[in-house]
Structures are given as structure tokens and as C-alpha cells.
UniProtKB/TrEMBL annotation, chain A:
Any one GO BP annotation for this protein: tricarboxylic acid cycle
SUBUNIT field: Heterooligomer of subunits alpha (IDH3A), beta (IDH3B), and gamma (IDH3G) in the apparent ratio of 2:1:1. The heterodimer containing one IDH3A and one IDH3B subunit and the heterodimer containing one IDH3A and one IDH3G subunit assemble into a heterotetramer (which contains two subunits of IDH3A, one of IDH3B and one of IDH3G) and further into the heterooctamer.
Domain Isopropylmalate dehydrogenase-like: 33-357
Protein name (Swiss-Prot/TrEMBL): Isocitrate dehydrogenase [NAD] subunit, mitochondrial
Keywords, comma-separated and alphabetical: ATP-binding, Magnesium, Manganese, Metal-binding, Mitochondrion, Nucleotide-binding, Transit peptide, Tricarboxylic acid cycle
Pfam families on file: Iso_dh (PF00180)
One GO CC term, this protein: mitochondrion
Keyword Disulfide bond tagged: no
Gene Ontology molecular function: ATP binding; magnesium ion binding; NAD binding; oxidoreductase activity, acting on the CH-OH group of donors, NAD or NADP as acceptor
Metal-binding as UniProt keyword: yes
Family to which the UniProt record says this protein belongs: Belongs to the isocitrate and isopropylmalate dehydrogenases family.
Function: Regulatory subunit which plays a role in the allosteric regulation of the enzyme catalyzing the decarboxylation of isocitrate (ICT) into alpha-ketoglutarate. The heterodimer composed of the alpha (IDH3A) and beta (IDH3B) subunits and the heterodimer composed of the alpha (IDH3A) and gamma (IDH3G) subunits, have considerable basal activity but the full activity of the heterotetramer (containing two subunits of IDH3A, one of IDH3B and one of IDH3G) requires the assembly and cooperative function of both heterodimers.
């Protein structure tokens, strides 16, 4: 396998230096270990397809599977998952369902994972994909969403019966951190403009602080234009003229809404991958975090989002060649309408799409063709 | 109570159809003055204040900033042209002043008149946080708890989605807009989102009543109860309780992120939506974007005693102010909503049909919907349509 070792002395260091989080070193004979959390709904089946595809493409990644049962009340399982991710540094996950019937003390497992690992930046790159019919064309927006605080602090109380206070926390430290991440990413990717999305006319202190931090960080990046927009105007503009947006940075809840709007614009939840980055860890999943309970185990789910998320993971691990090989195969398959799943208007099944991707890899992949 | 009800039914029987004509016959005497306080009938409808002065209603007008003043001038022009029996009491609110006298005067005027038409008042971000949003003060001061926005696709306007018809009911006084924030520890800001049982029950009740009145089949509650379990959980709980009292109307709920994604891909699945304040803000702006933009949709803020009408997306439009390019449709449709509220239905439908004729047949569009017309051209065209087709002027 040594001729396939892409790392090489200089190349590896270069790659490592470029990225803000360095991937864990490949300890075991050049193979990486990645935590895999199947989750609920369509998660398990799609992640099985990922494993199948990786095995087929000889990707040097081993998966350590950690199941998290969403119906169990104790937090042991999610803590085990967190420990596993701490050990491996990288994870690929499906969405874990949050049972609404359990009492409020039972926190969302996904949220616990994000906050324990301090995965402060959620990055979603929304691109119009060739071959998918959408009402808007040429969308290319990067959404950076603060992932740990804001409205998702899970701090609520009922002092007076019938009156609930829900706390939205904005801190200077986290706002500076996410703004710094956004500008660094914009610079890395050669983007021209960063837009902060907020509601500071109403939440003057909270979102005012966020906006203030963004402005401070923007001052240190004079080559990148910075502007801001109120969230309601942003969503209206997104629906009419999404091409005006480049990179967007925002607190947690607005990020949730805006990323779902953008996912809807480029074709739906089955197409967009998402990444959660922290200083030391990275977890990859679909951008809109759907469990897809209603379509679970019916072989109709769209595997594109999960497969693209696994490519993001390969990029993160430095296995760039494998990532681009799989990505090219996915895009080639997407451009053929007869291989679209139901959510983008076609009739194909999940397995057909994955088989087609594997055939594409076999046909054109640089690695396997050398062996023929 | 009984005498005032009797008087009201008498006044209703004396009005065969057109509001203003038999005004003198329903002129209220002293005894009926108390009926003004008893604002709701058993069906919960808001009774318009009686037309005291010779059959003419008085409505508070708050010009606001940006495009507000010019559009409201057009409204007044149009009303004068159409002989609408409404007099406007103009109350200016200066957004740059820090003391709250201006807005308090406006609130007093609205309390006196019962109905208002307003432009958006700008909130200056550079002033300290103690300087609250004037629009917000108005809404909470008058307890205008329901913001109703009816999003309809206009056939003459080019949009990516056709035939949208969604009613959005948004809680207007609490939620994230409570303006309660504090910085206990330097660098850590806590912003309080308040959800109360009373207000949630009230808005849910309003939503279902409106749905029933308008013959709608389904109400969808929009929330984020998977994360904000207590707050949005309470809201959802209240909606469910109220829903059980309306078995003819289907009730379902949807998480806000999924809602916005569905709105962008399949908006036709939605009928009536009810939600807390911030989600209402976002969802109403998405819907406004879907039907053609902020210049087309009117909004109403309704309370148990007062009603204030404005554009649905509450834009100041500073960048296009004074240039005669703003779209007057939203403001004019808002004034029609106001006329409906005052029970001047004939005038309202006359103006509304002229607006639709201009939009759909003449296709005179302003820049925001892709046309070349100026504001005055559009208003002139509407006036011409009224002149040629209006039921009132043709008789003269």
C-alpha cells in the first residue's frame, strides 16, 4: 500500500498546516479510526452504505460503531459516544431522535454531543448541484452557525406557573470565536464577503454583542467585505435573490432556520452535508439533521447528503484523493435523472444510487484502475 | 349590557349595506357611549367604534419613517378621491428622540380612536439598549396580541410559486421580543424569551376562531419544542388544548426549521399557521418573499380593543424613500383591511378590486416586482380604475 500513501513528508505537513484543526495521526498501519454513530431513522441504513462504499474503494478508514439508544433515559450511552470521539478525534453520525414525551430534563442527545465536545462551528456549504431541478440556479453559500450556545442552551424555568422563561445566552468569547472561524474560512476559500445575520434591533444586548464581535473580527480582515442583515430580511432575500449571499455567520437559531431555507433552495435535505468543527474534534453529518423516520428502511432515502458528509470527513483526514474520487462519482450519478431518489423527483432506490456510484468509481477511479 | 346590545343590533339593521350613507341614523347618544367599552360580542368579533361625527370615522395615522409618509399620503389622496368617510388624525413619532412622549401620545390617540394605520418607525441602533423599539412599545402598550398576515399570490405578479394562500397568525407581544436582557457577567448576555400560558391560549384561540370564520381546514403550529422544551412545549400544549375545542379543524405541528424548508419547496401544503413571535417574523418574511416581496402584503395587528394596520413585513424602506419608486400595494391593501375592520366593506372591495385590476390586468408594476412604474403612476391608475368602475362615483 505504500505507493498509495498520499501523506508523504512535505505534502502531509503542508496539508496539516493549511487546515485549522489537524487530523489525528494515522496510527494503525496508515489506517484511520473514525467513530460511527448510526442514530435513528435513515441513519443506520445510509451509514451502512457509506461503509460499503468505503470498503469498495479501499479507503483506509476503520469505523468504530457506537450506538446511542434514543429511548433510554440515562446519559451513559451518549457519554460513551463522546469518549469514543475524544479518542478518535473524528466522527460520522446520523441524527439521534429526541423523544418529546420524556420530561424536559432529558436533553437532546445531539445537543449534548455538540456541547461536550465543544464543536462550536457548524459549517454548511450550499451549492446548486448539477442535474437537480431547482427554482433557483447558481447558489453557492457557506453558512457558519454558532453551534453551542444561543437559544440552544436548554436553560428554561417556570418561576410562576404558566410563565416560562427561556434563556438565550450569547457570550463574547464564543461570538469572537465563531466570527474568527468564519473569516478564516472565508479567506481560505477565497471568498469576498461575510454577512452577519442577527436581530439586534429587538435583542439589542444579545445579538448586539454578537454583531459587535463580528465587527471587531472583521476589522482584522480588510480584504474581506463585511456587512450585516436582519434575519427576517435575510430569509426574504434568500427566497427571492439567493445569489447575493456569499458567506454567512450567525447565532444558533437563525443558523438553524437559514440553513434549512438554503437546503430547501438547493433541492432538499437529502443533498447537503454538514460539518461540526471544534478545536480538537470534528463530527460530520447531514446538514439539516433529519431523522427521516417516515422513510426509514424503505430504501428510498437519498444517500447523497451522508455520502458527501463522508467525503468532507475524508478531506478532513487528509485523504483528499479518495474524497474527490467519491465526490466525482456522486456528482456524475446525480446528473443522471433516472438515478434520482424520490425526494428530488425521481424513482430510484437508495441501493440503485449507491451501486451506480460504485460503478462510477470503478470506471474512473485513479486508484482501482491502476490494478487492472 | 342588554341595552347596548339592543342598540347595536338596531344600528346594524339600519345599515342596509353601505357604511357611511345612513351615518346620521346611527349617531350614538350618551347611553350608547358605554357600548364602546363593551368591545366584543359573543362571537368575539371586534366591534368598530361608532362613527360619531356625522357618520365619519376618525383613524389615527402614524407616518413613520422611510417610505411610510409618502405611501400614507397616497392613501389619504385615494381616500379623498373615493369619498371614503374616514378622517385621519396624524400623529408624528420622531424616531431620533430618546424620550417616550411621542410614542405615548400616539398610543393615547389610538386608544381614543380605536383604529390606526401606520408606517414603520425606524429603530436607531446606535442609541443605548434602554431605548426600546417604538413599534414594539406600541404593540405591547395596546396589547395587540395577534399579528395576522394573509399571503396570497397575485396572478399578475411573476413568482416562482403560484397560487399560494397562507394565513400566518403570529403572537405579537411576548416571546423573544420581550426586550428583557441583562449582562450579569461581563461578556455573557442573557436574553429572556417569555412564553405564558395565557397569551399562548389567547393566540391559539384567535387562530382557530379565524380559521373557522374563514372556512379554513387546517391549523399548523410552528415551534421548536425539541430544543426549547418548556417554552415552546407550553405553546404547543396550549395550541393542542384549544384545538380539541374545534374538532372540525385539523391541527398539526411542525418544527420551524422543517417549516421553512417546506415553505421553500412546497408552500401549498400550508393553510393557517400559528406561532410565537420570532418564528412568526421569519416565516412571514419567507412567505412575503414567496408571493413577490415586501411591497405586496398587508398586515394587521389586532388586540381585543384596538387594531393597527401596516405592511406585513414592517420595512422602513430607507434606501428608496422619497424617490417615488416604492410599491404602494401593501399599504393600500392595509388600508382596505382597515376599511373592512370599520365595516366599510363596499369601499374596501372597490379599492381592492381596482388595485387588483392595476396589478393583474394593466400590469403596472413598480421596480420591486420587476416593472418600471412609479408610485404615483400606480396610484393614478388605481384612481382611474375606481372612476371607471366604482359603484359610488358612477351613480353621480
Amino acid at each position: 500500500m505504500c505507493e498509495l500513501n498520499i501523506w508523504g513528508g512535505v505534502g502531509g505537513a503542508e496539508l496539516r498546516g493549511k487546515r485549522s484543526v489537524s487530523p489525528p495521526p494515522a496510527k494503525y498501519g496508515g489506517r484511520h479510526t473514525v467513530t460511527l454513530i448510526p442514530g435513528d431513522g435513515i441513519g443506520p441504513e445510509l451509514l451502512n452504505h457509506v461503509r460499503e462504499l468505503f470498503r469498495f474503494c479501499c479507503v483506509p478508514v476503520d469505523f468504530e460503531v457506537v450506538t446511542v439508544d434514543s429511548s433510554v433515559v440515562s446519559e451513559d450511552e451518549i457519554n460513551n459516544a463522546v469518549t469514543a470521539i475524544r479518542r478518535n478525534g473524528v466522527a460520522l453520525k446520523g441524527n439521534i431522535e429526541t423523544n418529546h414525551n420524556l420530561p424536559p430534563s432529558h436533553k437532546s442527545r445531539n445537543n449534548l454531543l455538540r456541547t461536550s465536545l465543544d464543536l462550536y462551528a457548524n459549517v454548511m456549504h450550499c451549492q446548486t448541484l448539477p442535474g437537480v431541478q431547482t427554482r433557483h440556479k447558481d447558489i453557492d453559500i457557506i453558512i457558519i452557525r454558532e453551534n453551542t450556545e444561543g437559544e440552544y442552551s436548554s436553560l428554561e424555568h417556570e418561576n410562576v406557573p404558566g410563565v416560562v422563561e427561556s434563556l438565550k445566552i450569547i457570550t463574547r468569547v464564543n461570538s469572537l470565536r465563531i466570527a474568527e472561524y468564519a473569516f478564516k474560512l472565508a479567506r481560505e476559500k477565497g471568498r469576498r464577503r461575510v454577512t452577519a445575520v442577527h436581530k439586534a434591533n429587538i435583542m439589542k444586548l444579545g445579538d448586539g454583542l454578537f454583531l459587535q464581535c463580528c465587527k471587531e473580527v472583521a476589522a482584522g480582515y480588510p480584504d474581506i467585505a463585511f456587512d450585516n442583515m436582519i434575519v427576517d430580511n435575510t430569509t426574504m432575500q434568500l427566497v427571492s435573490k439567493p445569489q447575493q449571499f456569499d458567506v454567512m455567520v450567525m447565532p444558533n437559531l437563525y443558523g438553524n432556520v437559514v440553513s434549512n431555507v438554503c437546503a430547501g433552495l438547493v433541492g432538499g435535505p437529502g443533498l447537503v452535508p454538514g460539518a461540526n468543527y471544534g478545536k480538537n474534534y470534528a463530527v460530520f453529518e447531514t446538514a439539516t439533521r433529519n431523522t427521516g423516520k417516515s422513510i426509514a428502511n424503505k430504501n428510498v432515502a437519498n444517500p447523497t447528503a451522508t455520502l458527501l458528509a463522508s467525503c468532507l470527513m475524508l478531506d478532513h483526514l487528509g485523504l483528499v484523493d479518495y474524497a474527490s474520487m467519491i465526490r466525482k462519482a456522486i456528482f456524475k450519478t446525480l446528473s443522471e435523472t433516472r438515478l434520482h431518489t424520490a425526494d428530488i423527483g425521481g424513482l430510484a432506490t437508495t441501493s440503485e444510487v449507491v451501486q451506480s456510484i460504485m460503478r462510477e468509481v470503478q470506471k474512473t477511479g485513479p486508484l482501482t484502475s491502476e490494478y487492472i
